[in-house]
Specification:
alpha/beta, 2 domains, 3-stranded parallel β-sheet, two-stranded parallel sheet, about 35% helix, zinc
Length: about 130
């Protein structure tokens, strides 16, 4: 893991000419990553919170209000699933960097436990396969 929020912030600033990201996706579900995403977006940017949070995360309105940040949340739905799967199969959507663990279907229970405890397991996304 990167050391401290200044490392990703410096990378995002360098890549965006100092402006910040248009969109930051929080997919881990920890207070730290939510706050990091909120700090990485440019004025008028968006934080897409798709991580499943088990603990409260602080919303720093004292920093966000003047930057006109939009925060969206939501559960995964099945509306976009077929299109996303087609994009993955066609090689148009590479999610390999998000997969931290792979399990066989007969390891489902262990996979679930690993995914349920990302702080200790380091799990971001797990893949189950035959």
């Amino acid at each position: 893991m990167l050391a401290g929020p200044e490392v990703p912030a410096n990378i995002v600033r360098a890549l965006t000419g100092g402006l910040g990201a248009d969109v930051a996706m929080e997919a881990v579900g920890t207070p730290h990553t939510f706050e990091l995403c909120a700090s990485l977006v440019r004025p008028g940017g968006r934080v897409a919170n798709i991580g499943v949070h088990g603990k409260p995360a602080t919303l720093h309105l004292e920093d966000l209000w003047i930057r006109n940040i939009t925060i969206t949340t939501g559960l995964v739905d099945t509306f976009s699933t077929p299109k996303l799967l087609d994009m993955i199969v066609a090689g148009r959507l590479d999610l390999g960097h998000m997969v931290t663990h792979r399990f066989r279907l007969d390891e489902f229970e262990h996979a679930y436990n690993v995914f349920a405890d990302p702080v200790h397991s380091g799990a971001l996304k797990v893949v189950l396969s035959r």
